[in-house]
Design a protein that fits this description.
- It is built from 15 helices and 16 strands.
- By secondary structure, the chain is an alpha/beta fold.
- The protein has three domains: 63 residues, Arc Repressor Mutant, subunit A, CATH 1.10.10; 197 residues, Rossmann fold, CATH 3.40.50; 119 residues.
- The strands form two sheets. Strands 3-2-1-4-5-7-6-8-9 form a nine-stranded mixed β-sheet, with helices on both faces.
């Protein structure tokens, strides 16, 4: 880490970055002695990217940010705080010691370390390790010990602790995202026995693309799955392992976090197969669309929602993300829309909406929304929607948003 980056004049410039022409800056002589303009640009861009994820960090001068990829993979302060809540809930007794095996530049470590008397943050990348050390001190996490090591090497030599957290890298050397546990770094299959022998509780952040049944199959001590959404967008999938329990019963939690309002939790038993037929509602009897957030679709939670809300129905067997009802349903996170018109799918009917403004939602069709928008000259709208559904025969549903 370049120590000149934390100088007052350099930090003032970085925090005024919104007013800086970055293209022009890249061709100018160095603004500050000992700080290449490329580093200034990297910090300004990283600060801008971090403002939504880490608002409490970005108002503090002196934080040094990592390259773009590390920012993208890092947790937000909201999801990190949620992990700390669940950890405290699941661990009984005094919380003495914990390890973050893949600490990055310190977001999860900063949140989790508040729970424990001693905490070790492990990061093998030299640049990230330097940032981690600096940032945790600035955030007054003075009891945190920072280690430069791989997760595998550190775990082999460490004594047992109360809690281990890891967020494995899910991209290969080309930057391609990988899904299977064997492709993670560290490899979860190779590390598994060490993890469950060294902690009372283990939490692993995995790819949201992982099939939940796959996780239960290959992690025999799995006791809880959290699908964590921020502003209704699925952000993280957390797996909690209890070495003293076998995963005969797994708790499934949908956590919906918000920046400016209280979180909502939906808890149930995880069922790996849910193939019961669901009730269909003729569109003639439907007045509202309930567009489900991706977390509910990921976990196949639709069946439970319909069971708990008898007024909800599937409209199309091939489109489980859309539920329909005669009355508005607002008791769980979703996008509620009022149906204004249902038309047979045809080019002629689409031409009716030329030069009007709609958000285009394409379901079960090969064409993309931007292709439809360009072909039929349809403008953008945040409040008015066209759902194009290939249901054999296909339909066009015009709807208006009732909530966010």
């Amino acid at each position: 880490m370049n120590p000149r980056l934390i100088a007052d004049d350099v930090q003032d410039y970085i925090h005024q970055g919104a007013a800086v022409d970055l293209d022009a800056l890249s061709f100018q002589p160095s603004m500050f002695e000992g700080v290449p303009n490329a580093e200034l640009i990297e910090q300004i861009q990283a600060l801008s990217k971090a403002k939504k994820k880490l608002p409490n960090w970005t108002v503090r001068k002196g934080i040094v940010y990592p390259p773009k990829r590390a920012i993208e993979q890092s947790s937000s302060q909201f999801t990190a705080a949620y992990k700390a809540e669940v950890c405290q809930q699941l661990l009984s007794g005094r919380l003495q010691s914990a390890i973050d095996l893949t600490a990055g530049f310190g977001v999860d470590s900063a949140a989790l370390s508040n729970l424990f008397d001693t905490f070790v943050s492990v990061e093998c990348d030299p640049h990230l390790n330097a940032l981690l050390n600096h940032n945790l001190k600035l955030l007054q996490r003075t009891h945190v010990q920072v280690e430069a090591s791989t997760a595998e090497e550190f775990l082999e030599r460490t004594p047992a602790v109360d809690f281990i957290y890891l967020d494995p890298d899910r991209r290969d050397r080309t930057g391609t995202r990988r899904i299977g546990f064997e492709h993670y770094a560290p490899n979860l299959f190779e590390l598994y026995e060490s993890l469950i022998s060294k902690a009372r509780l283990v939490a692993i952040k995995v790819s949201p693309m992982i099939d939940l049944s796959y996780s239960q199959k290959y992690l025999p001590h799995l006791v809880r799955i959290d699908l964590v959404s921020l502003e209704n967008e699925l952000k993280e999938l957390l797996l909690w392992l209890d070495p003293l329990k076998a995963s005969t019963e797994v708790t499934l939690v949908h956590a919906f976090l918000y920046r400016d309002q209280e979180k909502q939790l939906f808890t149930s038993a995880f069922e790996s197969t849910q193939n019961k037929p669901l009730p269909l509602l003729s569109l003639d009897g439907a007045r509202y669309i309930i567009d489900l957030p991706s977390a509910f679709i990921k976990s196949r939670y639709t069946e439970k929602l319909i069971k708990d809300h008898p007024g909800l129905h599937i409209g199309f067997a091939s489109t489980p993300s859309l539920l329909f009802s005669r009355e508005p349903v607002t008791t769980f996170p979703s996008r509620l829309l009022k149906i204004e018109e249902v038309l047979p799918y045809s080019k002629q009917n689409l031409k009716r909406f030329s030069r009007e403004a709609f958000s285009i939602q394409v379901k079960n069709q090969k064409q993309r929304p931007e292709e439809v928008r360009k072909r039929y000259n349809i403008k953008e709208s945040p409040d008015h929607f066209l759902f194009l559904i290939d249901s054999k025969p296909g339909v066009i549903i015009r709807a208006t948003k009732v909530n966010n």
